[in-house]
Amino acid sequence: MLKIGFIGAGTVGTALAIRLSQQGYRVITVHDLKLAAAQRLAQAVKDCRILEKAQGVADTAEFVFITTVDDFIPQVAAKVSWHTGQTVVHCSGAASTEALAPAKEQGARVGCIHPLQTFASITQAVENLPGSTFAIEAEEPTLSVLKELATSLQGSWLELKAEDKALYHASACIACNYFYTLVQIAADLWQNFGVSAAEATRAMMPMLRGSLNNLGNTGLPQALTGPIARGDLVTIRKHRAAFEKKAPAVLSLYKELGNRTIPIGLAKGTLTESRAEELRALFKENQK
Ligand SMILES: NC(=O)c1ccc[n+]([C@@H]2O[C@H](COP(=O)([O-])OP(=O)(O)OC[C@H]3O[C@@H](n4cnc5c(N)ncnc54)[C@H](OP(=O)(O)O)[C@@H]3O)[C@@H](O)[C@H]2O)c1
Known about the structure:
Layout: E1 3-7, H1 11-22, E2 26-31, H2 35-44, E3 49-50, H3 54-60, E4 63-66, H4 73-79, E5 87-90, H5 101-105, E6 109-116, H6 122-128, E7 133-138, H7 142-152, E8 156-159, H8 165-189, H9 197-217, H10 227-230, H11 233-246, H12 251-268, H13 273-282
Parallel strand pairs: 1-2, 1-4, 2-3, 4-5, 5-6, 7-8
Antiparallel strand pairs: 6-7
NADP nicotinamide-adenine-dinucleotide phosphate is lined by residues 7-13, 31-34, 37, 54, 67-70, 72, 76, 90-93, 114-115, 118-119.
């Protein structure tokens, strides 16, 4: 079985090491700038040695994950001596294999495997990983090895070209990170009627879970509910008036998102074209 090493024992490195080890892979060495981080990874998997230098991992492992933050991947790849026969990968969604050019020049195989998942904590990430999609950029034979790795982690995979990665990653940021931004904006509105954002978020959780369930089970456009799907103009006018009075800073975002929701309502078939036209007029930037 492949001898795996990790340079960078943060959330992603540690969660992957735990899952790989559970699937029977041998995670043999780890290095991190912080000893405590390396210790946490080493304690969570079987027979893993902590090494003081990144070079130690490159010298001992056949398959090396550079799981530092993105900005340090090229630096690590450049400062370590690599050798023919080993494989070096990183897990960034935006960076390409170009970040590993020094390893390739020294004869190592290179690749990227990005888990399309959010790693907020190690425990949660270990739980969330099964079922995830892994975006892979690599040439054969590394491509096949990474596909197998994704499958072993109970995930699926998709192949990405280097030039498509920035847009792919930006899309992930919209769906994952900006989803939180939207929840925060929505929750902050409750302060206008004396409820804290934390309490509002708690109150919204069952609805958010329900929305995700609908998205997963029926998908779009069918999952869309609410006034735009219904073409409910009176309600939208009330929303607009409330924003104008109590939260004017959010009005332009509300209009922009409303406009973006109209095509989903039309595709669902519950919003008529004539109602959609009236909604577009209501969502126009300077419309009073
Ligand atoms: N977080 C996510 O949701 C997510 C999802 C998919 C992919 N990724 C990718 O996974 C990679 C790791 O992200 P992460 O969230 O796990 O970051 P992280 O939690 O910040 O972990 C990075 C770790 O690497 C260490 N490190 C930094 N420079 C190093 C060096 N030169 N040598 C050894 N260790 C070094 C850091 O130590 P210090 O803290 O001391 O700097 C830290 O312990 C990134 O490429 C990221 O794009 C992240």
